[in-house]
Amino acid sequence: MRVALFATCFNDTMWPQTPKAVVTVLERLGVTVEFPLEQTCCGQMFTNTGYAREALPLVERFADVFGAYDAVVAPSGSCVGSIRHQHGTVARGCARPALAERAEAGARNVYELSELLVDVLGVTDVGATFPHRVTYHPTCHSLRMLRVADKPLRLLRAVRGIDLVELPGADQCCGFGGTFAMKNADTSVSMGSDKARHVRETEAEVLVAGDNSCLAHIGGLLHRQRAGVRVLHLAEVLASTERDFAADQELGAVASR
Amino acid sequence: MSGTFIGMPAFPVAAREALDNAQQRRNLQHATQTIRDKRAAVVDEVDRWEELRVAGAAIKDHVLTHLDGYLVQLEESLTRAGATVHWARDAEEANRIVTALARETGTDEVVKVKSMTTQEIGLNEALEDAGIHAWETDLAELIVQLGRDRPSHILVPAIHRNRAEIREIFLREMGKVGTPAPEGLTSAPHELAESARRHLREKFLRAKVAISGANFAVAETGTLVVVESEGNGRMCLTLPETLISVVGIEKVLPTVADLDVFLKLLPRSSTGERMNPYTSTWTGVTPGDGPQQVHVVLLDNGRSDALADHVGRQALRCIRCSACLNVCPVYERVGGHAYGSVYPGPIGAVLNPQLRGTESPVDKSLPYASSLCGACFDVCPVRIEIPDLLVHLRTRVVDEKRGGLPSGEQLAMKGASWMFAEHTRWERAQRGAELGGRVLGKKDSIGRLPGPLSAWSDARDAPIPPGESFRTWWKRERGQG
Ligand code: SF4
To answer: In chain A, which residues have their Cβ closer than 8 Å to the Cβ of B15?
Structure first.
């Protein structure tokens, strides 16, 4: 199977280890990954801030670059949500009905990582090992826009050595919300602080989610608090194997007791 | 235009103040969590809840697309039943009509059952200016009125107050306007309720005029419906000689049978009850029984403007259950006052800019008062896509600003869009980030940042860009795409 990777602009620049991890996992499963270099950004930030006209060229570019693929994967619930749920609306709002149809048709083949693995490839055990105490934050757009339900959790449960603990108030928004984090910084931080407190309550070593933007927000708060909790994208946990942990087997044994 | 909360600062400013009020935050968190759990439990009992939601939305959409016809039918039915119908384009006109009707009776006081519509138009203040006292008779409304406060929740207007605060308000204020609170009043709920009951009873028995809203208005029969929990509504609707009901034009339902769906959806969504304690229906005048003068003021006040917006009109489906407030993480933290309207929370964030326009600072900022988490849509009994509406209204706010001197944000967005439109431009920009990452080297994050970025870094550390982007790595490792 051939799958095109949409790295997302944010991951491409700030968290290259996440798309790299997607490549690792998919290739381990025998999938051929392509990375069309003409890709840039899905336009989510523009759309959600009210700049539909500025998002339009990016909607068109996305349709041009990815329209021909049978499957496209992106390691970001919110970007996939925007592509699936908003690209058509943006095009229609800018009086481009033909583009809207093309974008919507293309969006049907775009999957968030856990959807591609579980629904398309039919895999829950991706052969990962991650011997640490982990808690999982479901992120609003994965949960309510994409309805990925428990797919990420099923993938995590199949990881060897993992000690997966429940996050209190998991379905509560972390308060990132794109430009909301800047425009309503006080409210955003208040929401994020509650999320960070719940993460600490779990005594997890690692907080996992499917969106690096939410993780940057929660992780930024945890880091400022010197909480000693790492944040990691789901893809990176799924990419980890025994070999990565050969050196710290002992730590793993302690953490997963 | 609503005169109620005019002059409010933009949402972020009002929110900051509210966030500093620790007592209010605790009260809100406790109250919303309690209602949230109750609602979830009773909704889970209903097998076909989703089908009910779909039915509710469909009925409302049908009415909204044929509103002109149904309103004429409603007027005919009401008139046939002995009621007098008045039409009000805006708040001012509605207040003028109601004030004149009350004056004609020669009274200087009216009793009121909680009505969002009359709060929206600032009726109490208009009556007060005309020398007529309007007494709110719902417990929570009474608390707000006596405390010279503003409501901060659709259903529980005094949600931001706790029992100790309520006791103080009762002791201090009740005596000034009627039967005082008993001297040894404690903050036990039954004592507070009893003192309110005694204070109100005197007013009910004396009042010649009552003012209400309506949850639903049935076009076929001219029947108005009020749903409530304390029985004060029933007292207002039956005791006085004159009843004046102010009803938003979007409240119409075609037939009595349609009530079936909404009387299931509403109490479960709002108070987490299977059925509300009191459902009062009245159809015009019944000789010798109840009010002998019935007036219905049908209010537009921006609703036609909302109706003209094909995306935005779904906000008019709202049945004011307040479920969206109770699940909203933003509302839970800042409370209702920051929204600058009697309609707070997620529905307020989309309804107010549609009813009032997007000129004032608060109405411009409301569509942004959300993290777009989507919890509001999941609970809305009439499936209003609030997150989509918020984005739609943000686009309206942005588009209205176009053409003048561009703001910093506009320039940034235009610049970024230009950059992303060509991957070669984007790659050039990325190389800057890579360079920055290499300069910052081994640090794992950045502390405080200057300028507008301080909005991020005041409380959160920022990640450092890596020395190599994914794209650069891919090209190096795998050659071309
Ligand atoms: S928008 Fe929906 S959930 Fe919110 S008050 Fe209206 S009907 Fe209830």
So the answer is: 184, 186-187
Q: Is the CB of residue B382 below 6 angstroms from any atom belonging to ligand 1?
A: yes
CA-nearest residue to B16 within chain A is A186
Q: Give φ, ψ of B283 to 5 degrees.
A: -125, 95
Q: From the CB of B384, is ligand 1 less than 6 Å away?
A: yes
Please give the Cα distance from B443 to B461 (Å, whole number). Answer: 12
B87-107: per-residue pLDDT in tens? 999 999 999 999 999 999 999
Q: In Å, how far is B427's CA from the nearest CA of chain A?
A: 9
Determine if ligand 1 sits within 6 Å of the CB of residue B318: yes
DSSP state of B449: -
Element (H, E) at A20: helix A17-28
Those residues whose C-beta lies under 8 Å from the C-beta of residue B385, and which sit 6 or more positions away, are: B314, B377
CA distance B112 to B115: 8
Indicate yes or no: CB of A41 within 8 angstroms of CB of B426.
yes
Q: Is the CB of B323 under 6 A from ligand 1?
A: yes
- Say if residue B456 is exposed, middle or buried (CB neighbours under 10 Å; 0-12, 13-18, 19+): buried
pLDDT of residue B3 exceeding 70, the answer is no
CB pair distance less than 8 Å for B466 and A16: yes
Determine the Cα–Cα distance for residues B270 and B155; give it in Å rounded to an integer: 7
Q: Mention every residue, 6+ apart, whose C-beta is less than 8 A from residue B116.
A: B154, B213, B320, B342, B343
Q: What is the pTM of this model?
A: 0.93
- How is residue B295 written in tokens? 């007036």
Tell me, what's the pLDDT at A1? 80
Nearest to B397 among A50, A57, A223 (CB): A50
Give the distance between the most distant pair of CA atoms in chain A.
Answer: 61
Pocket test for ligand 1, best of B318, B326, B386 (most atoms within 8 A of CB): B318
- Fill in the DSSP letter of residue B184: T
Kindly report the nearest CA distance between residue A141 and chain B, in angstroms.
Answer: 7
What pLDDT does residue B406 have?
86
Report how far residue A168's alpha carbon sits from residue A28's, in angstroms, rounded to the nearest whole number.
Answer: 33
Q: Is the CB of B387 under 6 A from ligand 1?
A: no
Where does residue B285 rank: exposed (0-12), middle (13-18), buried (19+ CB within 10 A)? middle
If you average pLDDT over every residue of chain B, what do you get? 93
- How far does the centroid of ligand 1 lie from the alpha carbon of residue B299, in Å? 20
CA–CA distance from A190 to each of A136, A226, B47, B332 (Å)? Answer: 20, 17, 36, 11
